[in-house]
């Protein structure tokens, strides 16, 4: 096969890579995007899509957001049920006042098999995008005029002036080129299972985060899906996992069979398929996201929210920003590390404040009493409940949650 020549090659067609390619295409810029998988393909995930996803896709093109809204493979989600170790819980709607405007949910739950395939189908609508599936990029050599990328057998070779690495949590590009390696303090290990017939699902299909004492600072989740199914999983900081020598599959099994509340809810539940695990590279540490002729995006850039474990939204945001930076680089014919640093600045300007707040919250919830106290407060204080609601969208409010004075005031308020 002759060498494919392109200005921009995107490695990975998951949410980050597909979004980068879509933004380029809708700006009239061609690219090559290559994935080792053939779509539709599965990706281990909680399958929770926050409001960021629809917002961002709508910014690229309102038609994409409209097609996602119309898709039948997803379940609308109106809020979150947070449950502390003391079993007190609070329902937090995504929108203040719990407005359920038809056709306007803030979030969705849908299997990644479907969502990622939706994005790839969107790519296939764009003539500027050359999508190559089933090719695992293992070689990346920096040459004077660009990166030479290739697979192990050498039968596929791509020469690109600029690389957007979007190949996920185990990205070899991130390790070998950007020299960023997994650190257990900034990494979560998660497992996911699909169940049918779990009882006690909220009528409004709230997603459930259970901050069980033995899992902190991680959580056990139940995310309702269409057709009576649910995505059930557990995620735990890798450093805690190692220290406590926890086996995640055993932990999941014990939770659904022995926990007093869950064993009732899972009494008639049926496990569908296997229980699978994957890594979550957290954005709890600031890193260099670009270098000469490359930018890292999504999980390959370690951008997962350390408190919620949400990574899809940030994958989309960073993918779009990388595309915007790529367009500037092409126009200036400047792919230097110095020029691409503007991408890092953009990412951290937009996502940085949220990541910093979530890192503080992640550290706070290590202590079960804090969440217990928050739940007690929320149960008796209406103002505090609405504050927690706004927390989802307003970084300033999350900042309040990280200040000791806030808790003191709360303790003395009614
Ligand atoms: C257990 C678990 C639960 C999670 N729950 C949620 C959740 O509910 N909500 C949420 O927002 N986030 C969640 N996340 C995080 C979310 O899954 C990721 O943040 C998201 O998938 C990142 O998208 P991405 O495009 O960066 O990477 P990926 O989705 O991993 O896509 C990377 C793509 O690159 C391809 N690829 C990899 N290597 C190569 C290569 N060498 N050559 C070519 N192609 C390659 C892969 O095939 C894949 O298609 C969860 C993660 C885990 C592990």
TrEMBL record:
It comes from the Bacteria. NCBIfam families: GG-red-SF (TIGR02032). One of its GO terms (molecular function) is FAD binding. Transmembrane segments: none annotated. PANTHER family: CONDITIONED MEDIUM FACTOR RECEPTOR 1, GERANYLGERANYL DIPHOSPHATE REDUCTASE. This is Geranylgeranyl reductase family. Pfam families: FAD_binding_3. Residues 5-312 form the FAD-binding domain.
